[in-house]
């Protein structure tokens, strides 16, 4: 009887022991099934973590790994952990972006400058200049400068100033002038290629130039004619002024009772010598100096025409005609101004 009781106790103990062992094995299996190992790579620095947490976010919290809003994480923090998973975290860096007259501090985990600008919705024009280049890797406290570049074709109208032409004329008195044509400015159209950087012009290249309206030059007539004022107040235009020695001759008889003029008043040009105080009188000249037929004004004598010559009249010398021998004596020999009239 006692032996049977001992056998029953032993069987009960064996069953309890087996149950305990099986339970322990089960618990160990469950524990091992819950434990997971993940590899966390933060900016190329790797850490291996073993955890019983169910979500990646819980692991980061347990390990005091802070993930900012701009950090780049390769997994969803609320997703379930997979054993042996490699997780990559790229921490955002602070970048100074200078654009459009503003300086912005940007947190970004982008790989390079271009990706950072895209993520921040900073648009670039085709000609914009980015410094450093768009494919430069981002670094902490990097400064990125964007220069807005714009090229435009501009057409400008410009005034063409008229010029003034001065023409000499012996039709007008010396010292006077007259505008015979008013000047008028012209106009031209010039095309430029203009480059602007951040709104400021930095270069300008002329592409073409076209005259729309030709200028009209101003024309001024400048008088070159000399005038002399006679004793009677009359103004006479003259071409040339000569300083000559003068004598006088006449057809009247001299003290010897002979005519002073050998041809009795008939001139070399076959006219009759005359003294006309109200018109043109006759003078003898050297045709090499004063051409025959030239109208003159003789100082102290008046208007005259070169109609005669004389054997003694050579070079700068003239012989004025008078009506009497007395007047020839009175005239004598003197130097006078002779004006060749126009």
TrEMBL record:
InterPro entries assigned: 3D_dom, DUF348, G5_dom, Resuscitation_pf_RpfB, RlpA-like_sf
Membrane-traversing stretches: 12-34
Keyword Cytoplasm set for record: no
Domain of life per record: Bacteria
Signal sequence interval, chain numbering: none
GO process terms (BP): peptidoglycan turnover
GO CC annotation: outer membrane
Any GO MF annotation of the entry: hydrolase activity, hydrolyzing O-glycosyl compounds
Domain G5: 146-226
Keywords: Membrane, Signal, Transmembrane, Transmembrane helix
Keyword Phosphoprotein annotated: no
Gene3D superfamilies xref list: Resuscitation-promoting factor rpfb, RlpA-like domain
Coiled coil: none
PANTHER family listed in its UniProt record: CELL WALL-BINDING PROTEIN YOCH, RESUSCITATION-PROMOTING FACTOR RPFB
Full protein name: Cell wall-binding protein YocH
Species of the source: Clostridium tepidiprofundi DSM 19306
Lineage of producing organism: Bacteria, Bacillati, Bacillota, Clostridia, Eubacteriales
